[in-house]
Amino acid sequence: MATTRDALAHQASSARLPIYQAARGSIVALAAAVLAGCMSSISRVALPEAEVARANALVTPSAGDPSIRIWGDEEPAWFEAMIGAPQEVLKRRFPGIYGKPHAYLALSGGGENGAYGAGLLNGWTASRTRPEFTMVTGISTGSLIAPFAFLGPEYDDELTEVYTQYSTKDLLRKRPLLSIVSAASAADTAPLRRLIASYVDGPMIAKIAAEHRKGRRLFIGTTNLDAGRPVLWNIGAIANSRDPAAADLIHDVLLASASIPGAFPPVLINVKTNGKIFDELHVDGGTTTQVFLYPAGIDWRQVTRKLAVPVPPDVYVVRNASLNPVYDPVRPGLIPIAGRSISALIRTQGIGDMYRIYLGAKRDGLDYHLAFIPDEFDVKSDEPFDLDYMRQLYQLGYAHGKSGKNWHSAPPGFE
To answer: Contact at 8 Å (CB) between 57 and 269?
Structure first.
């Protein structure tokens, strides 16, 4: 497979995106909208609003999996059914996690800063203290880390490759300036999708399905742009469906979760309702939340009680970013001003999400652990996926994971 991956890496155009952080690239879409009246090159059959509640992804879930996706901002329908289920049913449905200690991993967005989380996980393996995670969640770059983290140290080498061997030119194709005006994004992510498919292949998907059958869960977050709401995809349930379309849907979800609006094209995901096929437009999960643990409205104490978890679960939150603002004088232009504004919005949103998870963990009796990029790391990135920058950040994450000394028991201000 290494030969295939090397070939995929070099198929991408050598052209580079402008030297802005990936999030700032979304401003190109804003400028294009002003110039061209929001013309779009995407042809679609949008799902009618009246059918949103009834639409299902085309992959058919296996028996016992009521849904392969849920809204991230409301209590899911399966919650009440689970709470009311007899213990014997839950023992059969969750054989690998029932009556055992739980550990949950939440991976945030952060673009190339995902190298920190990748390094941390590998260093954690080297410390011989890394747990098997009962549940893994991922947003944006966290979604690309999540499948490897879910399957454990067996996939550490592949995770290292993803964040230390590929740069901007391997992942994206810059569109010609004039074509951006009529396109949906500044870059084409076809190389990234091919790379995702080369790693998240048939054997990996089969292993995810096997772990799902034990009761472990892997959730990836996207944003349904039509609805303006977060969507949580149960990747294990998709893998376990054995539907011929399962692999393509998993690849689409992972790509959509990392698709920064404007910078990267949105992903069309087909759905079916009343015998008709429509589509939904999905983008970066970080558009609605930077990191998540479980859907809003769930009392997790009831979940752990029903699953007979013997001790308080551990929650590990990896924020692939620094928490404090960086002073950086802004040029008085549309793109620099808007780009800096979006960067500030993403940073503060991420901080708010960390506090939300912390407060939920305290309410639900979970032990909270947080890791993030320290302010002392002052290396500058020269492009959206700067290989030298990512390698240095990976090494920092590795050192943190191996030492185990950089976990915080609460967000800043709560310790």
So the answer is: yes
Measured between its terminal Cα atoms, the distance across the chain in Å is 46
3-state per-residue secondary structure call for 283-340: EEHHHCCCCCCCCCCCCHHHHHHHCCCCCCCEEEEEECCCCCCCCCCCCCCHHHHHHH
Structure tokens at 189: 């992510």
Question: Which amino acid makes up residue 308?
Answer: A
CA distance 108 to 334: 28
Q: Whole-prediction pTM value? A: 0.86
pLDDT, tens digit, for every residue of 147-171? 999 999 999 999 999 999 988 787 7
* Region class of 40: left (phi > 0), else alpha (psi between -120 and 50), else beta: beta
pLDDT at position 396 over 90: yes
pLDDT digits (tens, 9 = 90+) for 187-206: 577 888 999 999 999 999 99
- Where in 51-134 does DSSP place strands (E)? 56-57, 69-71, 103-107
Q: Which pair of structure tokens corresponds to residue 120?
A: 């941390």
Contact 203, 239 (CB under 8 A): no
In degrees and rounded to multiples of 5, residue 298 shows phi and psi of -90, 130
What DSSP designation does 320 have?
A: S
